[in-house]
Each structure stands twice: as structure tokens, then as C-alpha cells.
Amino acid sequence: MLISALPFAAVSASQDQANDQTRRLVRQIMLDERIPGLQLAVVKDGQIVLSEAYGLANVENGVLASRDTRFPLNSATKAFTGVAIAQLAEQGRVDLDAPASRYLDDLPMAWREVRVRQLLAHTSGLPDILDANGLLGGGSEAQAWTAVSARPLEAAPGRRFAYNQTNYVLLSRIIARQSGMPYERFLATGQFSGARMARTTFGDSYDLIPDAATMYSLAPRATDTADMPPRMSHWFYDMPPSLWAGGGILTTADDTARWLVALTEGRLLGDAARARMWSAERLPDGRAGPWAGGWPVLRASPDLQVAGIGGARSAFVVYPERGVAVVMLTNLVGANPQRFIPRIADFYAPAATIATPSPVGRPSPAGSPR
């Protein structure tokens, strides 16, 4: 009995040490970066081994962040859209190599040869429906769509990588058309429900969403003088429903971690569909582009690293060959938590210790952007 207990004790001690190192690092990061509130979740071999909340969800009213606080994923939502398209492809309702015009018959003539996979990987060459001031023209969603539809391609489809939101407006329409239900309902039934994501919803900082963290920024205000020291201010962002597929989800680190476990255990996608979704789109010269099917590819091989990164304040990174995933959500624009996630992942499984590759949810036998 003593012999059989030793391996578990060793693993537990190692995990406790990793958790302690992570807690110390997170507290230091929050201090150094002036991050008001933060949620963290770590997945190891299919289990959430650490899930904690730190700091304030709302500074001015002293509201503490909790594990139930909702944080926006912003562009990390695109990973969920990638899963939705991969699910439809697995069901035979979408062909990733087909032109988007097979599913959308109202596309401008110049756009009709853009492939579904090129929309996912930002190699479509389409013009962006957003500019520095928001929706094109500063008007309604319909006006912005009219404006962007009149613009020519910026590059031949598949020719180069260029991040833009038009791609995910079209993917949302394809999902609705081929699933027979609105985009948000297809995600709720096909992903949120199966992964037990009870705290996940859609919206932006203008919507009245219970338990939503207030967003902040240290960026200078337009009226600040050049020598004004950084000060914390409110940050507001507008995410109309037509753009939800590119950045509309609000969720928790717990919900996101449960989703990652469900994904990597094969409960949302089969192994082959997931592998294709995480394979970087190739450029004409044969090089791998920076994105796969809705996911930035931080590293292809060895030690595959795929991510969701959004709003310069939320991120999750999956390390399938290490059996690790890390979720970090904050309410400070400019925190860029993807900078710190690799250090946390190393606490649980350093890259140098990789043995036999395996998905996050299964121990190995050796066991923009915006």
C-alpha cells in the first residue's frame, strides 16, 4: 500500500509547488502591470488543477473579482467560432475547402472565390468592416456592410495573412445558414451546454450583464498632456451582434477551462477534426501562416501551442503535447496575459520534459491580434 501511494504523493507535491509558484507570479504580475482584476485556471491532463480569482472586478465600488465574474474574451471568441465551423465540417454540412459563396449567395462577385478555411485563417484578402473608429462609416451594421461590400479585395484569396473582422461576420452567417439556427444558439447548444459553461453569454460593455467585470485602461486620454502620468480610466467597447463571432463572448476562466477539457477529450470534436482545426494555414510559398482554423498558432512543432487572444486583456493557450492549458482573463486593456502564460505552463510541464505527444485531456503513455 505504501509503494502504490508514493507516485500519487510525488505528483501531488509537484502540483502543489506549481500552484504556489503560479500564485506568486500572478500577484507579482498584477502589481507590476497594475491589473485590477484577474481570473486564472490551469488544466493538467484533463483536470482543472488551479482556479482562482484575484483583485477587483470594479475598482471604484470595491467589488471583488470572484470565480463567477464574467470577463470578455473579445477576439479569443474566434476559437469558439473555429470549433463551430469544424463541427459543421465534421457533420458534412460545411466543406472547409469550398468557396464561401456556396453557402452565402449574396456575396460581391469579387469575393466569391474566397474559401471557408481562408476566412478562418485570415488569408481571405477581404477588406475589413472595421477601421480605427469602429464600424466603417460610423453608422449602423447595415451601413457598414454596404460600405465594405463595395470595396475591392486587398489581396488575392490565400495570398497573404491580414487580420480582419469581415471574415468572422461571414463565418457567423455560414454557421447560421448551415445549422438552421442563430450563431449564438448554435454555440450554446453545440459547445456551452456540453462543456457545462453556465456563466457564458454574449454582449459588450454597454449591455447590462450581471457580474460582468468593468474594463479599464492605462492609456492616455485624448485630452491628456504629453507629460501626464498614466492613470486608470474606464474602457468602453461596442460589439454589435453581427460581430459576435469575432469577439462577443463573456465568460469565466472556469467555463473556458471546462470547454478546453471537453474539446481536447473529444466531446466537442473528433481527433481528426481537432487536428485539422489546429493546423496552420499554408501560404503560397509553403510557409505556415500565423493562424489555423480560428486559433493563432504560437508554435507549430515541436511543442504545439495554439491560443485564443483577445482585446489585449484575455488569453488562453493550449499545449497539447504537454497536457497543459492555461486561461488568464483580466479587466485591463494592455495587460496582454499571453505574455505570462508560458511561464505558468512551464511550472506544470516544462517544454524540455515533453515525451509522447498527447491531447490536453489525455495523459501520454509516458505519463491581432486584437
Q: Can you give keywords for this protein?
A:
3-stranded antiparallel β-sheet, alpha+beta, 7-stranded antiparallel β-sheet, 15 strands, disordered C terminus, single chain, 370 residues
> Strand order of the main beta sheet, please?
3-2-1-14-13-12-11
Percentage beta strand: 15-25%
Helicity level: 25-40%
Oligomer: single chain
Structural class by SSE content = alpha+beta
Arithmetic mean pLDDT: 91
Task: Please give the number of β-strands.
Answer: 15
Shape: globular
Counted by DSSP, the helix tally is: 10
Distance between the termini: 53 Å
Based on CA atoms alone, the radius of gyration comes out at: 21 Å
Largest pleated sheet: 7 strands, antiparallel
Q: State the low-pLDDT regions, or none.
A: 1-9, 356-370
Q: What string gives the helices and strands in order?
A: HEEEEHHEEHHHEEEHEHHEEEEEH
Give a structural overview.
With 370 residues, this protein is α+β, with helices and mostly antiparallel strands. Helix content is 31%, strand content 16%. The chain is built from ten helices and 15 strands. It has helices at 2-33, 77-90, 116-120, 141-149, 166-179, 183-192, 244-247, 253-264, 271-277, 341-348; strands at 37-44, 47-58, 63-64, 71-72, 130-131, 134-135, 201-202, 216-217, 233-234, 249-251, 297-299, 305-310, 314-319, 324-330, 332-333. It has a seven-stranded antiparallel sheet with strand order 3-2-1-14-13-12-11, sandwiched between helices. A hairpin with a 2-residue loop joins β5 and β6 (134-135). α2 packs parallel to α5 and α2 (77-90) crosses α6. The longest helix has 32 residues, at 2-33. The protein is globular, with a radius of gyration of 21 Å. 47% of the residues are buried.
